[in-house]
Structures are given as C-alpha cells and as structure tokens.
Design brief:
Number of strands: 0
Shape: elongated
Helix content: over 70%
Number of helices: 2
Distance between the termini: 73 Å
Largest sheet: none
Radius of gyration: 20 Å
Order of helices and strands: HH
Strand content: under 5%
Length: 108
C-alpha cells in the first residue's frame, strides 16, 4: 500500500515539475530576457509545487513531501539536460554560421 502512495506522490511531483518548467520556458519565450516579468510570472508557477508538497504532507506526512520533491527534482534534471543539449546544439550551429560568414567576408 505504501508503494502505491509514494509512487503516486512521486508522479504528482513529476507532474508539478512539468507544469512549473513548461510555464517557465513559455514565460522565457514570451518575455525574453526581461527578468522582472519572468519573476512576476513565478507567482503562477510556485503555488503548483507548494500545493503538491502540501498534498504530499497531508497524505503521507514528511515522507510524502520527500516523495513529491524527488519527483519534482527528477523532472527538473531531465528538463535541464534536454534543454541544455538543445541550447548547446543551437549555439554550435550559430557559431558555425558565423564562422562561415567570416570566411565568406574575408574572401571578398
């Protein structure tokens, strides 16, 4: 029975991470580098994680919070690795384009 409860709370934390980071990435796409607007949009993201942790506490006390946070952290790691790889690839492509542009300009 405990395995089902903790697995459910882990999945809840994973879903909370999905909502949190999806909204954060959407905010970055919308507002660009405007830090004040990104931070103000956190008002909508933070209650998701806090609510999930509180639900974990209600269901399984301290261990429930830990299960939710492990799920959240797992999604966070997956998200950051995926986005980091994507950004690295984009930077490498952009550097290659600049290098080709510089070679073209130096030939002229």
């Amino acid at each position: 029975m405990a395995i089902i409860i903790y697995t459910g709370l882990f999945i809840l934390g994973f879903i909370a991470g999905l909502v949190y980071f999806w909204h954060m990435w959407k905010s970055i796409g919308t507002y660009g580098a405007n830090k004040s607007k990104i931070l103000s949009s956190m008002i909508f993201r933070a209650p998701v994680v806090i609510g999930a942790a509180l639900l974990g506490y209600v269901v399984a006390k301290f261990e429930g919070i830990i299960a939710v946070l492990i799920g959240f952290t797992t999604f966070q790691i997956i998200f950051l690795i995926k986005k980091g790889s994507q950004l690295k690839k984009e930077l490498e492509e952009e550097a290659l384009k600049e290098e080709n542009l510089e070679k073209t300009d130096s030939k002229d």
